[in-house]
Design brief:
Helix content: 55-70%
Largest sheet: none
Radius of gyration: 31 Å
């Protein structure tokens, strides 16, 4: 029986030390406008996808809405990882600079990685959106039946007393109020959740509108979750770099031995 090949030991994880930055420094505040624009892009993504992927089938409507929410959250998670890894890499540079006896400026230190920076930036960026949703949560009311438009042939009946009072009720127009404006804004911010609630009914839509401050933070919270893993992701990258360097050195040694064998003179028998 042939002996089993020994498994190569998994290389030790390379965790390089970093200089940890500030979670609420100047650099964190500079990130806030970008996070606000990112949250607005989520709302536009919600609106675009719901319009393009609108289905009459309730099951498809629920599935697509859930997929949109998960997709938006995952995208924010990936963006957080990218920024966290970048800041952790910069933290390694600052650590090496400090080890060399060089001075590390406070503004450079603010740029370095801190596991809570992503959470701080996201919470600050969410304040105006949560505030709008919170205001509307106290204003929201159950949607009522809206009268449709009467056909043109009913205009001739308005001259008759027995029909005019009933038909005039259809002509009553509701003014566009601040509540209507708030409803449009809030529903745009949480469109997939509203799309799911409409399958259940008006009571579910009202519940979602009142829970809108919680719904609006779900996708953006993917960013701090991803950012907090920045140092870990950087360590994985360093480990892969170490593995690649080791493979390169093995190939170079192998090629060197082959050249030595080919250049050595052959023995004569």
């Amino acid at each position: 029986m042939q002996e089993k090949k020994k498994k190569k030991p998994f290389p030790e994880k390379v965790v390089k030390p970093i200089l940890q930055g500030s979670w609420n420094g100047r650099e964190a505040w500079k990130m806030v406008p970008g996070r606000m624009l990112s949250i607005l892009s989520i709302a536009l993504l919600y609106l675009f996808c719901i319009i393009m992927l609108g289905f009459n089938n309730n099951i498809l409507r629920i599935v697509t809405s859930v997929v949109i929410i998960i997709g938006a959250t995952y995208y924010q998670w990936v963006r957080g990882i990218e920024r966290g890894e970048k800041d952790a890499s910069f933290g390694e540079i600052l650590y090496n600079r400090q080890q060399e006896g060089k001075t590390v400026a406070a503004e450079d230190l603010d740029r370095s990685f801190h596991p809570l920076k992503g959470l701080f930036v996201t919470l600050i960026a969410l304040i105006p959106f949560v505030a709008v949703c919170l205001i509307y949560a106290f204003m929201a009311q159950r949607a009522t039946f809206q009268l449709g438009v009467l056909p043109s042939w009913t205009q001739s009946l308005q001259g008759h007393n027995e029909f005019s009072d009933a038909l005039n009720y259809y002509g009553v127009k509701t003014a566009f109020t601040f509540t209507h404006l708030m409803r449009i804004i809030v529903r745009t911010l949480i469109m997939p959740f509203v799309n799911i609630a409409t399958v259940v009914g008006n009571d579910a839509v009202l519940l979602i509108e009142r829970l809108s401050p919680l719904c609006v933070i779900i996708a953006p919270l993917g960013y701090p979750l991803g950012y907090s893993r920045g140092h870990e992701i950087r360590s994985r990258i360093n480990t892969r770099i170490k593995i690649a360097d080791a493979k390169k050195k093995r190939r170079e040694r192998k090629a060197r031995r082959q050249r030595q064998r080919s250049s050595s003179p052959e023995r004569l028998i």
